[in-house]
Amino acid sequence: MRGRPLLRTSYAEELALLDTPAKRWWTGALLVLAFTLPFLLTDDLLQLLAVCCVAAIGAIGLGLVTGYAGQVSLGHAFFLGIGAYTAAALSGDPDGRVIGLGVTDIALWLPAAGLVAAVAGVLVAPLATRLRGLYLAIVTLGLVFIGQHIFNEWSSLTGGAGVGRPAATLEFLGRPLAVTDEVATRDQKLYWLMLALLLVFALAARNLARSRIGRAFTAIRDRDIAAGVIGVNLPRYKTVAFAVSSFYAGCAGALLYTVTGFFDPGSFSLLLSVQYIAMVLIGGAGTISGAVAGAFFITLLPRLTRELQAWVPFISTQPNEVPNVFQVETILYGVLIIVFLIFEPRGLFGLWVRARSYWKAWPFSY
What we know:
single chain, mainly alpha
């Protein structure tokens, strides 16, 4: 209704994707800005933003199981690894030194990577029906170490520790997607591709959160016993949460290393799981936009810490000197998680809500 955007007269209006004119305008402006960035930024920054988009897909997946369904998972690196190796094995060279099937079309290996990871998530899900809280977190943490052992030992698939293998090949209908030509550079194409995929995955997750499944996730997160009493099938919805989250992680893992082109088993360590937990907590658990904001923030953080040396000269950029930017980066992950949990548990999304509420009430913001 004109002049009263918050007045809703139907349930459909309440659940609308963009329920106010301001949201529609802001979303449109952000999309226009995002798709014009390749004409404004250099290729190295575009490559970094492409990684941000892929990380955001993985963070959305973790946000669905942890933020929406309340099932704390520290095993996200395991599912990312499954997706990365599934995609690489499918699109790899059949005559190469590691397993390869020669299926180079992204329309085939990307869903396959997500599905294999989702199957792994379904196998883990029965644990979630018996455990919760810290116990579930510790069990999922064990997945990271099991995965690292398998990835290190299965050298015919992974190439072995310290050696690695090429990432999946980016092709669609026989046309390479990551090559420089007269139309655009490789990094410009990668950025547009990852941005488009991020929009698809974010829209799907937002729609899932608005559906009956999303409301069941929220009920389980708020109080699983009460949810079970009112008829929510806890085993089924917890399994769905892990399956969907693992599918997102598998797709993100498949795409993540297509930007750099190479990866090895050491890429899927506990630090990677911690980074994804930090993305969800710092961005804001239980929101899609918060997971995206957190993924961009955490992925851009190393680039920002590299710039510290210009402002704080005693911080070295050499890894063999103390203190160095890599140590500062690791400490910042922990400090930021603690600061946000204490002062703003809703993360960056909460800061945005505060700023928006302040200006909406201005000049009576007290």
